[in-house]
Design goal:
mainly alpha, 22 helices
Length: 534
């Protein structure tokens, strides 16, 4: 076969592999459903649980990127702290080595047509008959497996033919190894898939185009290439996403440097390891074993460093967290996962509510509109960011539970917006404070009762009992009616100018409405959504 034909087969095989990986990952994520969230939610107990969760979920969905997104989403939603999240990410690096084992032990060992074509046929049938159901998701995953195996077969055939026609960087010297690492990194950056780079390295070694050590260097380069993807994902992301990306970059770079330093000894140990495990003696099995050992080595290296790394990361990327007008929980990485996106919205809307209630409290104590302008600008900016985020969510494919929670969150947000507007309308309160003794007493009582109610309405505070909230709201209403009656009485007897009385009533009414809106928001606040819910 000509070089051109082999090259086109190579490109086509790579395309089939990437398409198959994408379909397989999407199907497995949908088929697994809330099980993935349950596993990750259990990662909070110990670092062993977090590490095991990362390995298990990544091996299940065949996508470390999906696990990274979910971990960042859980951190942003307050369901997972940064420390366990890092171990989930490290576990995802180990779990992604399953792809190499699938290629080495299945994709390169069997007659692919006997396995791939039935998988594609059955998968498409299940997908067509189970659209929108778990059966359809399983069908997508099966069809993806079939396409992946067809892609591997085409890659293997192409590399076998290319072995005698082209020559890749060979040798074991520093320059040759660096060239091989650069090839792996470049392929991963261009294809945005370390799994595809792994497939190319394994099939090239199996076809005789690369030595085992050369292919191992390509695998190391592929791991380094994933750091570019992580850095790109961190641009414009939340502080937690940036911390996770930084941890991923440090893990991959430290592991790669140590593996490169030990490369000749690791390759020498692969033969003994393959023999002890009863693995085939071909290069693909050795490389799959190398990939696993390489990432397990990274976990061992990070074990004593993780606590220090967590503290160091928590002290970084603080500028955005210190700016209240910047979103802290909305991250593009969680947009494809509706449940996590809604949880992020809940946390961000809580920040809006906290600022709105702060505005009401400030207005109660005589703040001017200028004083409230900064907080009002924060609410306005956060509202705009939330609206943009909601517009970008895939609401057509949203599960019913997530859709209902989204509607609740948007309703609560509207209450908080009105709270902020009414607080601004009430200011300044100081210069119209009543001068009569009875009205002053009523004014003081209204301030005390409204402050007590606002303390219960703050979404960033504890969740109050319904009875306590109802009682506080009732006491605020009683205090308002008393204040209103005293102001009207003062106006009737000439103790207060009618224009001042009307202005005072308008501003106190605005404060009352602000407190009412805050109370409605608290009553309708979305209940915590357990990851175990279907």
């Amino acid at each position: 076969m000509s070089l051109w034909a082999l090259s086109t087969n190579l490109v086509g095989g790579l395309g089939l592999f990437l398409l198959g990986m994408s379909m397989m990952t999407d199907g497995l994520k949908l088929a697994a459903g809330p099980a993935l969230e349950r596993i990750l939610a259990g990662a909070t107990r110990t670092r062993w649980h977090a590490l095991g969760s990362g390995v298990m979920v990544t091996a299940l969905v065949q996508s470390s990127s999906a696990v990274t997104v979910a971990a960042i989403g859980f951190v942003n939603a307050g369901l997972l702290s940064l420390g366990p999240a890092l171990w989930v990410l490290f576990g995802a690096n180990v779990g992604t080595t399953m792809t190499g084992w699938i290629i080495a032990l299945i994709g390169l060992k069997f007659k692919i047509e006997a396995l791939a074509l039935p998988l594609i046929g059955v998968g498409v049938m299940l997908r067509l008959t189970g659209e929108g159901q778990r059966r359809g998701a399983i069908g997508t995953a099966l069809a993806g497996f079939g396409l992946l195996f067809l892609g591997i077969a085409m890659l293997q055939s192409s590399f076998t033919g290319l072995a005698g026609q082209i020559e890749l960087p060979q040798g074991e010297g520093p320059l040759a190894v660096l060239a091989q690492v650069a090839i792996g990194a470049l392929m991963t950056v261009l294809m945005q898939s370390s799994s595809a780079s792994m497939a190319i390295a394994l099939t090239a070694a199996q076809g005789g185009l690369l030595t085992t050590q050369g292919a191992a260097a390509v695998v190391i380069g592929a791991n380094i290439g994933t750091t570019v993807t992580a850095m790109l994902a961190a641009i414009g992301a939340t502080p937690n996403a940036r911390r996770a990306a930084a941890a991923q970059v440090m893990f991959n770079l430290i592991t790669a440097l140590v593996a490169l330093a030990l490369l000749p000894w690791l390759i020498g140990a692969l033969g003994a390891g393959s023999e002890a495990l009863g693995l085939p003696h071909d290069p693909a099995a050795k490389l799959a074993l190398f990939h696993s050992i390489f990432n397990i080595l990274g976990v061992l290296l990070m074990w004593p460093l993780a606590s220090h790394l967590t503290r160091w990361l928590q002290a970084r990327f603080k500028r955005r967290e210190d700016d209240e007008a910047q979103v802290q929980h909305l991250d593009d990485n969680v947009l494809p996962v509706p449940a996590l996106a809604v949880e992020a919205l809940v946390r961000e809307v809580a920040r809006v509510g906290h600022v709105a209630i702060r505005m009401v409290s400030a207005a109660l104590h005589g703040a001017s509109q200028i004083d409230l302008a900064r907080d009002h600008a924060i609410v306005t900016q956060l509202d705009a960011a939330i609206a943009t985020f909601v517009e970008r969510m895939n609401r057509s494919a949203m599960p019913q539970r997530a859709s209902e929670r989204l509607a609740q969150v948007l309703r609560v947000l509207r209450y908080h917006e009105t709270t902020a507007e009414q607080a601004k309308a009430a200011a300044p309160l100081g210069h119209i404070a009543p001068k009569e003794r009875l009205a002053q007493t009523a004014h003081a009582a209204f301030l005390v009762q409204t402050e007590a109610l606002l303390a219960l309405c703050d979404p960033q505070a504890y969740d109050p009992e319904t009875a306590a909230l109802d009682a506080a709201a009732s006491e605020m209403e009683t205090a308002y009616e008393t204040l209103k009656a005293s102001l009207l009485a003062a106006g009737a007897v000439g103790g207060t100018r009618l224009s001042d009385m009307e202005e005072a009533l308008r501003r106190y009414s605005a404060l009352r409405r602000a407190a009412q809106q805050a109370t409605k928001a608290r009553r309708r606040w979305p209940a915590p959504d357990s990851p175990s819910e279907p």
